[in-house]
Amino acid sequence: VSSEPHPGVRRPKVSLLRSLTVDATNTYIIYSLVFSWDGSLLVTGSSDTTVGVWAVASGARLQTMNGHTGPVRSVALSADARIMASGSQDATIGIWEVATGTRVHTLQGHTASVNSVSLSADASTVAS
User: What is the DSSP letter of 5?
Assistant: First the structure.
């Protein structure tokens, strides 16, 4: 088995520019994270039932979203970073305004943990 790509397929150059530690003092598990398209924000979903919004440049936590009663297993962010979705072990999906941290909608109907969520680029559709 070769690690070389298919003939004619170029392998992308990937390098780690820097490491970002968002909160080394807590012992919760971050299950999911996503960068904004411009790389300025990082959104995390964690075992402490919260969603966090972080400034990548400084590492500062900008928002803490509360509302789930179980660990947050998945997060997704709209292309303009204004809306995000969170899927939780509590079987709900939260829809949030990123700038204010306000939960604007709760989607119910799952019978088990929501382990993966995705938003369309314009945030008009959520899949789970």
Answer: P
Residue ranges of E strands in the chain: 30-35, 41-46, 51-55, 61-65, 72-77, 83-88, 93-97, 102-107, 118-119, 126-127
Q: Rounded CA gap, 20 and 36, in Å?
A: 15
Say yes or no to pLDDT of 35 above 50.
Answer: yes
Query: For residue 15, what are the contacts with CB-CB under 8 A and spacing of at least 6?
Result: none
This prediction has a pTM of 0.81
With a CB cutoff of 8 Å and minimum separation 6, the contacts of 9 are none
Alpha helices, DSSP H only, in the chain?
none
Which tokens hold the place of 79? 């292309």
The residue among 50, 126, 63 whose CA lies nearest residue 98 is: 63
CB 88 within 8 A of CB 96: no
* 17, pLDDT greater than 60: no
Q: Is the per-residue pLDDT at 7 higher than 50? A: yes
